[in-house]
Amino acid sequence: MTTPGQVAHGRETTGGRRFDPRYLAVAFGVVFAWSEVSQSWRDWGTAGLVFTYTGFIPLQLYSAWALLRAAGRAELPLRARQALRLIAGMFVSFAIGSIWLAILSINANDEARYTPADIFYILGYPLQIVGLLLLPHGPTPTSGRLRRIIETGALLLTAAILVYTHHTLRANWNGIGDFVATATPLLSLLGLLVANGVIARGLPIPSQRAWRTLVFALTANLISELVFQTLWATGYKGPNWSLPVGVAVNLAVVWAAGWYARDPLPVGPEATRPALPFSPLPSLLAAGGAGTLLLLVQQGNVDVARPALITLIVLNALLVIREFLLVRDTTIMARRETTLESERRFEALVRHSTDLILVVDAGQIIRFASPAILTLLGRPAERTMATSLAALMHPEDRAVAQAIVDALLLIPGSPATAAVRLLHADGGWRRFECNVTNLITEPAVLGIVFNARDVTERTQLEEQLRQAQKMEVVGQLAGGVAHDFNNLLTTVLASSDFVLQEMPAGHPLREDIENIRIAAQRGAALTSRLLVFSKPNGADPRVVRIAARVQSAHRLIQRLVGDSYTLELKVDHASGAALVDPDELEHALLNLAANARDAMRLGGTITLTVEDRVLAQPLETSVLAVPAGRYVVVAVADHGVGLDLPTKERLFQPFFTTKQAQQGTGLGLTGVLAFMRRSHGGISVESTLGQGACFLLWFPRREPQEDPSSRVEAGSLTQGSGTILLVEDDTVVRHATHRILVAGGYTVLDAPNAEQARLVFAAHADTIDLVVTDVMMPGESGAALAAGLRQARPGLPVLYISGYPGEDLARLGLQVGEVELVRKPFAVRELIERVREVMGK
Prior knowledge:
Elements: H1 21-38, H2 46-54, H3 56-71, H4 78-108, H5 118-134, H6 145-169, H7 176-200, H8 208-233, H9 242-262, H10 281-298, H11 302-352, E1 356-360, E2 366-369, H12 372-377, H13 381-384, H14 389-392, H15 395-410, E3 415-423, E4 429-439, E5 447-454, H16 456-502, H17 510-532, E6 542-545, H18 546-552, H19 554-561, E7 565-571, E8 577-580, H20 582-599, E9 604-615, E10 629-637, H21 645-650, H22 668-678, E11 682-687, E12 693-700, E13 723-727, H23 731-743, E14 747-751, H24 754-763, E15 770-774, H25 782-792, E16 798-802, H26 806-810, E17 821-823, H27 828-840
Parallel strand pairs: 7-9, 13-14, 13-15, 15-16, 16-17
Antiparallel strand pairs: 1-2, 1-5, 3-4, 4-5, 6-8, 9-10, 10-12, 11-12
């Protein structure tokens, strides 16, 4: 089913194209207008008489039908539908008059001047006037009231010309002719007064083109009737120019009705378009009056033309005044529109600005707050008005802000900058950088403007960068200290091993020497922990017993959490091992323990559990996927505040933290996640809000391996053979290492640096089976030395020794796990076995 809004006179807008009868009406109207102007119908005999009196009827009826069809559109306003029906009635009345006139004229076989049929033409004018009044229009603009008075005066002057002409020169008509000749101009003038007001207050419903086309077509019809009825009343015998105008009016009405039927209804500003700047009717009527005057002069009516000419001069003077007022009003409106546009642009900028804009008076009372305050501080702008700025500001920043305001009050228009903290609705403080300007003397502002940008996240990132730079410096210092300390411990461990090998089992000093060795091993562990804070990436994975490593980290973790917390260990010492960087493992445990401590602000128990588990199916709820298999699981549990679902989802994101500012960087759990990825493990989190949390680290289980550095065996070492070039810059370490290698059965050539090593190698190049070199040495590094020697002798075995962390070695091109490396401090048997292993390869 097709609605009126979908059909435009025989053509469906949603279907295929069909013949449009409007174009047939155009063709017919052109022929009809031409025949009337040229008077060619007089040569057609009776057929011409019939054609001239019946030709207008189809156009009038088609116009009425088109208007009634448009009035059936339910979406149109009620007044618009009523107006269209009344105007359609006007065309029906015209059609009835045309039919009656045709019958009378055809029967008389002559052109009729005035007949009773003209009554129906006269009845059409009230319908047209009421339809114009009902047609939706806007309110009367007060700015154009004086122009409206002048326009009305111009219309009345035009009427005076026509009425004067009519009563002075009109033919002596009686009865119907006198009534029609008098009523038609008066009704046309009344219609023009109404049309003038409607045009000046125009409102395009449903569309601008439909409204304007209909109103101007009806207005043109009124002007035509006003002028030509007056001429006919005076006995005018020239061409009937009102008929082409009537044809154009009918066709324009048909097109306007089509647009009323299908154009979309406007919304927003389009539905309330302002009035036209002026009405063209006085100018059109002045032109019509001038044309009438010319016709009168041509007919010799000079005496009548003289007062009409004076009246036209006055009329044009009024129009000049009207145009002056129009230019003035247009200029004022343009300035006002420019100001409004500037205000709208400023309002849009403020409304969409991500910065916070506050306007305060001299007493720091907030008079304006931009909408961004809701996003930045969680407070609606309307609830912030008339409150004190000091109430939002951190107590430590209030004095600074007051000093800035006092200084700005002395110099209006001067700017200043400030860094302040403002209170968020959630109770936290947000940091802002403010540009403050005194605009109290500006009428549009009348206050001090704070343009504040939230820099909380940027400040946190800067603080994290400073902390990272500090840690880098500490790491570099720790690496150097650890290297020197490891050199000392290497000598202690080697010397204690040699003494223990020579000392019988029951010797009274053996226990003291063993204690020295244990102390040296603990010193090595302490050095390793110190390096944890200097190396961000794990670079030395080994198969270690998780339980033993957690047990050894117990004291360090207890010192971290403090005496207000109890650290409970539930360690299954029979649990398996895993391939991890042991230092990174301790670092991860320290991070998890610190988070557990912060979740229990009033103290409590932190539980560390180590046990073996077997997963028959993958763990689906883990943060880092855990496939099925055998695992060593480390669990860190607390009884704190717990975690809600949104926090769980963001827990491992970089820089996300639930701690207060300056209490956390949001990088701890990110580091734990990275460590577990490198360890090929997984993470899962079990937590309920208000009931604590448990973080589980899942390490793929490996079979434990014996640590050579932990063995102290009596008896002689297994003897090897071959020549070793030993390069070590520390004299004590070089002597101790030399002694270990000789004790292992090897011939040792040593050098204190790379330069001396090259000389020794050049002299014994064919006999050297292995190069054992320290990595970090003054001058040329051990890595560069080994690369140079391998150029002279490809495939030369090299064993590196170092006490520096893995990333320091990586900067020299050595990747731990890809080169042969033994860590300082090392025991006698550990070094001998590594040498045998490398030489065996």
